[in-house]
Each structure stands twice: as structure tokens, then as C-alpha cells.
Amino acid sequence: MKVATIRFATDILRRLGEELNPNPDQGILELVKNTYDADAHRCVIELQNSKSNNGAIRICDDGIGMDENDIVNGWLLLGGSNKSQDRRTRLGRIPAGNKGIGRLAALRLGTSVELITRPADRPDKQYKLKIDWNEFDKVSAVEDVELQVHEMLRPLGVNSGTEITIAGLKTKLSRSSVQSLARALIMLADPFSDDPLGFKPVLVAPAFAEFEQLVEKRYFEEAEYHLLAEVDEKGEAKASVLDWKGAVLFTADHDEITRGKKGRFYQCPPARFDLWAFLLKKEAFSTRTSTLAEVRAWLNEFGGVHLYENRLRVMPYGNPGNDWLDMNLRRVRSPEERPGTNTSIGRVSITHTSGTLLQKTDRSGLVENLAFQDLRSFAQDALDWMAKRRLGEAEKRRAEERKQTQEKASQAAKTVEDAIATLSEHERSRVKHSFEEYRKARDTEVEKLRKEVQLYRTLSTVGITTATFAHESSGNPIKVIRFSVRSIESRAREALPFQYEILLAEPIDTVKHAVDSLAVLGSAALRLVDHEKRRFGRVDLHKVIENVLTTFKPFLEGRDVTLQTTLCEGTPFLRGSEAAIESILTNLLNNSLAAFESNGSSERLILIDTEVTDGWFTLRVLDSGPGIVDIAIDDIWIPGETTRPSGTGLGLTIVQDTVKDLGGRVAANATSPLGGAEIIVMLPVLGI
Question: Is the peptide bond before 269 cis (omega within 30 degrees of 0)?
Fold first, then answer.
């Protein structure tokens, strides 16, 4: 009988390292977490010639170090860990307890690794290990490469700790990679509170200093509201909202937070959720020492809700673009009194030893099991409760303002009537008649404004509904369709190698294009309702036009529409919002597409032309559709007027209102050189 063992090909190192953790910053973070587990107070990451090939990364800490046994049975052990979350370190820290996969990814960044470590319990010893990854390319199995741990005398006066040098970097570290690493290190050990355990990672790089200065400013005192919510070990939650002075405004018990889910307790570890919401308006900062621009810059880098487990941040929650609590979607659905990731900053903190929250193998977040789902539900329910309470207070204020306005109007009318009564009979009759005419005109104007408000409420509802469907469809449904189509294509090519192109290639390509069009609709809808685009400032008109056309490109191609652009020289700009310009062009493009569909046009051409003359920017949109027929030119701007059975009649109304708000004017020609309609938009510009 011959004894056999399972062996691993050396290629497994690449698969477990580079492929599972393709981002350098994530692997380096795992090494830094090791220093936290080693009770280090300080960890320094130094990048040496990292912008060129064959650079190096050096990581040093002042932790407890390792001995031979720790290196062999811990540091070199992949897929397991001798750390236990039930056993705290000497500083009271709960170990991160990773399995070494992320560490391997960092170590594989270079061609070799050198480890020098000095254990605290052996003050006269230090240990050295070198790994040459090229040696693994010469053998067939990982076990065939022997690694040697050398015991050496420690120089006098040298404290405990560990140094890791990753030499011969295989790829350059770009500026964006360094910035990403700097941000991740700054956020790793919860910089928003004073950590009594004193862990501070430092990156020797200019980007780190910039982020460090920004995060240390801590503008929490500028927040209008502070939400503080907690869930205990029984799954019961409570919450309170404080104002900027720290005074309690609202409180809630478990039943109020979980309204509609009575009897439901959260099955997640005990957690605390802090959120600071800011009112980013000039008037709110008029009497403060911090400026609106400073707070915006701070929130732009660190805004959103971050997740901390056992005092260490869990990636990617709170990263730019990672809205794991769906704050922005909920803000779109109900914009009033709801914070977004650009107007708030927060953290969910968990300290536990139960192991109910598990990290994914590739360190891309936590496994979305019941514990994680309930943790997210707890935070979302707390946000919903705060929004309801704030909305209720806002409704009370509006009701009181309406009441006061009505009382003031009645009092003003009585004052006028009393004044009229003092006039002579002849003058009284004439003035009274004029006042009644004024009242009628005012009532007519009020009724018109009410109708406009209702119109824009309808548009808001359409936008909210569209954004909701766009958010949902851009996620799982479209991904499932794309995955299924790829699977069908792959299997069909394998099963019908000679007949695929004849029988299935065209319909499968058609489905692919249709899915791309759906994705465009979703992304376009979400971009249009992005609240950042509604902010006033400098708007580069050509840039906005190009962005809209890029978004629409797959959609236009899917409908066989040829797009031609003739943009004038220069970069004309005005003061306004990107959303306004986007709404103008988007509605005009939608009108052209609708005209093609209703007329069944075979040759579909849209021309977009711009010019600047005497301080006016002119945008012309022409198409080869049927033109403006069956409706008077003057009537196309009236809300609800449309010749399409399923049309809303609101698109050109929005265009006209938006252009007027920007100080411009708009006109239309029933036919154009292309045969279809021509819409001409003129806007005053500040420069080119």
C-alpha cells in the first residue's frame, strides 16, 4: 500500500491570490488588519518606487510579533486561522480572524517577500523568512518548495514588531490605486471616534496626508440632525434624533421603529447606528465657522454609511457608489426630509463574538445571510422612522404657515375694505370695482398655479415610479436576462456548431440589443433624478449634450436611428443646473423617437446643431419624421395636448417652462430640411 496525500498545483496561489483579490489595496488592508490583531498601536505602510516596475511595499508595526510556531502554523497557513473571536487580545481587541487569502493576494503583488518579526515574549530573538515566488514556477506542487525560518539574535534596543517587504512589484501602483489605499487606511480604524485601543495605520504618501487632514476636521457639529439607533442582543431596537445642539427632538421604541412588522425582532448582532444629516444650504452656514464648500468636500470623500465590525471597517460598505442602505433610491422616491449619501455621513458599529456575520472569501463584503439582512433592515427602518417624524414636523410647519398666510390675507383684505369705506360714494364705487377685478385676476392666477403644481406633482410621481423601476430593473432582472442569453448562446454554439449562425445568431443578437436598450432606459432615468444635477452652478452646455447623447446611443442604435451632431467651436456655458439642460434635450429626443414610431419611418435621422451668436446659445434639434401635423404650432406647448394615443402631452411643456426659467426662448417649425419637425432653443450664455 502506498500512502497518498492531496497536493495543490502552484497555480492555486494565483487563483487564491490575484484572482480572488484583484485590487492591491484590499490585499494590503488584510496585512494591516494582521497588525491590529497583533496589538500594534502604529502601522506604517511605505511605497518605494511604486510608480515604476520592480518597486516595493514595506509594512512595519510595533505589535507583539511572531515566533517560529506562529509563522509556520499561523502566518503561512492558508484557509484557516488560529485566531478566535471568543478570545480577545491583551489590549482587549477582537481579532479580525481572516483565513489568509487576502494576505496571500498582497504577498503576491511582488516577485519576493521578506518577513522579519520580533516576538514580545522573546526579547533577544528575531525571525526571518524569505519567499521567492519564482521558485514556485519551477515545481508542480506548492508543497515542493521548502521555506526556511531563520532564528537570529535581535539587536539591542529594538522593540517587538513585524516588518514585511514585498519586492519586485509586478505592476505599477497608479495614482488612483494609491488614493484608494489612502482612503481605505484612513477609514479602517473608525476615524470618527477616539479609539481607546489606539490603532493608527499610516501611509507614507501625499494622498494620505490630504485625506488625513480632511477627515480630522470632523464637521459633525455642523449637522442639522444626529440619528442614534441601537439594537440589543434580544433584537429590540430604540432610536432618537438630536438637533445640532445635542437636544433630543424625537425618540422611538421598538414597536414604533418596526411599525407594520409587529412581533418582529431583528436577528442580528447588537449594533449601533449613527447618522449625521446636513442641510447643505447657504443660509444654514451663514453664521457658522465652517463653510458650505468645506463640508461638501468632506462629505464628497467620506459621505455615506460605513460598516465597522469589531472596530475595523468592512469593505465596501460606504465606498463611493456603494449605497448598501438604498438611501439615494429612497430619497428619490420621497425627496423631502430624507438624507442621501452626499448629504450625510454615518456608521453602523458591531462588536460581537458570535460569528454570525461572515466575510466573503474574496473580501468583497459580508455574506448576505439572515443576520446581515436584518442588520440592514434595522438601519433602514431607523432611517424611515426619522424621515416620517421629520416629514410630520414639516407638515405641521406648512399647515401653520398656510393658516398664517390666510389670516394675513383676510386681514389685508379687511384693511383695504375699511379704507374703501372712508371714501366718497363716487370714489368708493370706482375703487371697489377695481378691487373686485383685482381679486378675480388673483383668483385666476392662483387657480392656474394650482394646476401647474398638480402637473408637476404628476411629473414627480412619474419620475419617482420610473426611478424605482429603473433601479429594480438595472439590478437582478437585467443581469439574469444577460446571463441566460450568454448561457443559451454558449450552449447553442456547442450543440449546433455549424447551424448556429444560420438559425440562432440573429435572434440572440436581437435579444442582446434589446437588453442593452432596457439598461439605457434604467440608467438614463436614474441619472435624470440625481439630485446633484439639480444644483445650480456653471453648466458646460456641450458637455451635458454629449453626456446625454452617450447615454442614448445604444437606445438609438437599437431603433436604427442615425444621429448627427454639429457643435460649434468653444465651450459655451451658463449658470443653471445640468438637470435643466438634460430635461430639454431628453424630451426633444423622446419626441423624435415617438414620431418615428408613430409614422413607421424607415429612414430615421436626428440632427443636433449648436451655435453662439451675440451672447445667445442656439440649439436646434431636427428629425426626419412626419413633422408637426394634426395640431396647431401654438398648441404643442399646452400641457396635455398630444396627437399620440399614449402620449402625455407634457414633454414640450417641460421644455418651454425650463427654457423660460433659464431666461431663454423656444420656437418650433412644423417641417425642417430633414422633413420632420425642428425645435429651436435659445439660451443666454455667460461665455464660450
Answer: no
